[in-house]
Amino acid sequence: MHTVISLPDLRSSLRSLRSGSGDGALRHSGTVGLVPTMGYLHDGHLSLIRRARDECDHVLVSIFVNPTQFGPTEDLSRYPRDLERDLRLIEPLEVDLVWTPTAESMYPQGYQTWVEVEAVTRPLEGAMRPGHFRGVTTVVAKLFNAVQPDKAYFGQKDAQQAAVIRQMTRDLSYPIEIVVCPIVREPDGLAMSSRNVYLHGEQRKAATVLYRALSRAKEAYENGEREAETLRQVMKDVIASEPLAQMQYVSCADYDTLEELETATGRTLLSMAVFVGKTRLIDNFVLG
Ligand code: AMP
Fold first, then answer.
1. What is the tens place of the pLDDT at every residue in 130-145?
2. What is the torsion angle, in degrees rounded to the nearest 10, for the CA atoms of residue 53, residue 54, residue 55 and residue 58?
């Protein structure tokens, strides 16, 4: 496993990987899978890496806490970071290349170019976190341009992000297959997240409320309930029953457009954002 920081080093390592000989003579021998992360890795990230390892000849993991996707009141400065630990976790997974760019190299002085996706970024996370998706799409476009992978791996945990990246990939004609992997959960149902380290004691227990609320709504759906407002209410009631939880939104939306539904007939995304103390958690289920 090789770790690179600068863009020239990334390019020369990719050339070696693709040529198989280091001289760059044979372009693109073997497929490259990219797994973009912000580090502080857990089993959710590792599941993406394993999937990439299964499906691609070469696997590249990027670790970059992207400042432009954090709002001014969000947790950029305290976002957990531990590169040594991350590299230890990646080591057994036979990753070819780890890229850890610096913020200064990604956004040098005078930086002024942004990638913006429209409608699908507006509701849900986009409404609660203005500017978030502009940061996400810009950094992912930069990663795609630098690595030129054949496949890129994202988690269903960030359902709207996956929809936004699919849209951007189509719209900008990137020849990249977007692979979305299932949510990896703790035994009690809490979706794994780097931010779970913020949760202590009672808060950690209360954090299962997202899974409980989604499960209750799914149960209603499986018993024949299709009224989207009823499914939203089922989730709201479960969240309201947890004293340490504060709902930010619940949604029952179309899986692709993320528009709120009246009736849950096609592929449906149940999703929510909930504060437990100061920690903001998101989770979702796909129905249909
Ligand atoms: P992050 O480091 O939080 O930006 O996440 C990097 C990638 O891992 C994103 O595509 C996430 O959706 C994905 N991911 C995060 N948590 C999970 C999880 N619990 N299960 C599956 N994928 C996840």
1. 999 999 999 999 999 9
2. 30
- Residue range 138-184, pLDDT digits in tens: 999 999 999 999 999 999 999 999 999 999 999 999 999 999 999 99
For the annotated catalytic residues, the residue numbers are 45
192 CA closest ligand 1 atom index: 19
184 lines ligand 1 (CB under 6 A): yes
- Mutate which of 140, 154, 158 for ligand 1? The one with the most ligand atoms within 8 Å of its CB, which is 158
**pTM score above 0.85:** yes
| Number of other CB atoms surrounding residue 105 within 10 Å | 11
pLDDT of residue 23: 47
Residue range 191-211, pLDDT digits in tens: 999 999 999 999 999 999 999
> Which of 60, 157, 179 gets mutated to test ligand 1 (max ligand atoms within 8 A of its CB)?
157
**Cα–Cα distance, 9 to 137 (Å, whole number):** 24
Dihedral angle sign, alpha carbons of residues 276, 67, 45, 3: negative
Query: What sign results for the dihedral spanned by CA atoms 60, 65, 67, 69?
Result: positive
Under DSSP, the state recorded for 263 is B
